[in-house]
Amino acid sequence: QVQLVESGGGLVQAGGSLRLSCAASGSIFSINSMGWFRQPPGKQREVVACISRRGTTNYADSVKGRFTISRDNVKNTVYLQMNSLKAEDTANYYCNVGCPVATNYWGKGTLVTVSS
Prior knowledge:
Elements: E1 2-7, E2 10-13, E3 18-26, E4 34-39, E5 46-51, E6 57-59, E7 67-72, E8 77-82, E9 91-96, E10 110-115
Parallel strand pairs: 2-10
Antiparallel strand pairs: 1-3, 3-8, 4-5, 4-9, 5-6, 7-8, 9-10
């Protein structure tokens, strides 16, 4: 079993910033890729950003240049710095220990609401 706990979401005005955190615990031996996904209201879940154990990153086109993913391999934690937020970034954000192909382990997510 893997437990994922996301935090850092909230209400922010357009143009603002938030930093999300996700701590992974449980049956973790050597996590390779970690990532962030999001599910906007009424839409399907989508990949936001992935990071390999060595630090190679990939981003969805919609967030390139605005979001930065990072990780702490000792703490099994992944972060998402979100700048220049837009209304269309409003979603429930989830992390996963598989990216871009997610595992079946999901946390409760953290809600990000961007007001325009």
